[in-house]
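Standup, Tuesday
Yesterday: got the pipeline producing structure tokens again.
Today: sanity-check two examples.
Blockers: none.

Example 1:
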Amino acid sequence: MEISVLLFATLKDIAGQNRLTVTLDTTEATVNDVRAALIAQYPHGADNFKAAVASLNEEFAFGAEPVTAGDHVAFFPPVSGGSGVDSPALPEHYAVTPDPVDHDAIVASITTPAVGAVCFFSGMVRGSTTRDGHLPQVEELHYEAYESMAVAKMKQVAAEIRTRFPGVVGIAIVQRIGRLKVGENTVLIACSSGHRDSGCFEAARYGIDRLKEIVPVWKQEIAADHQTWIEGAYTPTKGDRADRP
């Protein structure tokens, strides 16, 4: 059986391609079988593939879950860290885009007559840092996303926000991709509510923290003479699936 596989970030570099076909000597394959075949094909990246997160048809996948021909299988490192509207009363906006973020347009997209407050989190490209595992000086960042799954998981984040912060009216989640220079905006979470004490501050904080855990986006730090992918420390569990019990 042949399985088409997508690879992202570090794994893409190891394989030298982001899309490949894995041939399995079975008609009853599992996610584990696909992972093992990749390790056998790229033994120099065995540790990376063992630690990789798997997805099946754009949802997190685990171990013995069955895989069939035609499924969308992807492997990627832990994430580093389109638009739609559910209803006029509870507007939502999602985007994975190379374009600069228009903050005024975002405010307009999640504002209704019931809104009196909007809280933003806006991430930026930082030029220098002392954090372990990062380049001390960066000229730009390269962001990559599993775009269709990223939008699906953004919608999951929004649903979680609504469960935890029922006073929130509008939600916007935007992730930029491509090469971004120091000082440019990289990601935005915006939440609107009737009043500033109705949860919009807390919801925006929850949104960016959750995005860094489950939305499949990675960044590559680029300096004058070096570049490196930054991988996260959070590994999704079955509880992070949108269809969890």
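Example 2:
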Amino acid sequence: MLESDAGKCVPPAVPVRWAQALRSLRSWVDSSAVEDPGASSRRVAWLRVIPFIALHLACLGIFWVGTSTLATVTAILLYVIRMFAITGFYHRYFSHRSFRTSRAAQFLFAIIGAMSVQRGPLWWAAHHRTHHLHADTAADPHSPQLRGFFWSHVGWFLTPAGFQTDRKRIPDLLRYPELRWLDRFDVLAPVTLALSLFGIGTWLNRTQPQLGTSGAQMVIWGFCLSTVALFHATVTINSLAHQFGTRRFETRDASRNNFWLALLTFGEGWHNNHHHFPASARQGFRWWEIDLTYYGLCALQALGVVSHLRPVPARLRQRTR
């Protein structure tokens, strides 16, 4: 304790570096604990991204837990379900409002999207809207044209600046307290998924040993491998879809259509189409441009879960380079 001018004991000041470290650790569970907003936008916050690195290293666990049909199927199903939540809702709904849905369905798919370990829906939408506003300019958070592959693929969100949410971009979403809560404690969704997989695998190991699975195996395959594959597939749209492919429309950015990325990301690879008319619920403008997310949204519309899927105006669909 220190003696103040008034004769009272006051606690010593916490060193700046220690304060930043504590905020980084707290941000593992509470995303409101941001680092210094004035910190370098290119500096990787290594302490905060330890869980992200650990997730990748955990995939090596396949050499210890082995595999089973159930674990493989679980990994594939969780890839499919969460990819749809990211592309259909995080992207086309939260970021671009390309269709309507109920508040309950909005929150349900926001939770599924958060299970993908791609942060909360508010953070995701805010960054994506910034990307469209400044695509392939100095203000774009992840342009490969300006900063290269690594930065656009993973580097940009590992920084203090990339961790923060620009609330000016999402006034329409901030009015939902449940979305604000989910965005703040976005780690709860993936942790719950991982613990659930461990519990299911442990139970099956005891009751259905012929399945050849275990709690650890279900976590490694169903969560770690599936999540890492999902993440890297998603961010290829940032790092590759602005460099490789064809350009049907003369947009002001370098977006391209890429058939293989479209398959991998359920339609997101028709990226030049998307930048030409971002508000559309459909990104594959031609019948042969496979857009699995759009087909899923059509199915949900038939079931009454979503409505008013925004189409591509015919005059815009016909305009080419």
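Quick observation on example 2: The first strand starts at residue 2 and ends at 3. Residues 59-318 form one domain.
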